[in-house]
Design brief:
This protein has two helices and no strands. The chain has about 45 residues and is mainly alpha-helical.
Length: about 45
């Protein structure tokens, strides 16, 4: 029984860790400024 609880606890820690990593990765993506056609044309000059 103790081994099962340890295994579940370890899996829970990994799941929370991966969830945190993916959540912060998605948040960083959404914070990047979005380029519009006007800014793309301006950069090409």
């Amino acid at each position: 029984m103790k081994k099962i609880l340890v295994a579940i606890s370890i899996l829970a820690v990994f799941a929370i860790g991966f969830g945190f990593i993916f959540a912060t990765h998605d948040a960083a993506k959404s914070e990047q400024p979005k380029t519009t056609e006007k800014t793309k044309k301006h950069r090409q000059r």
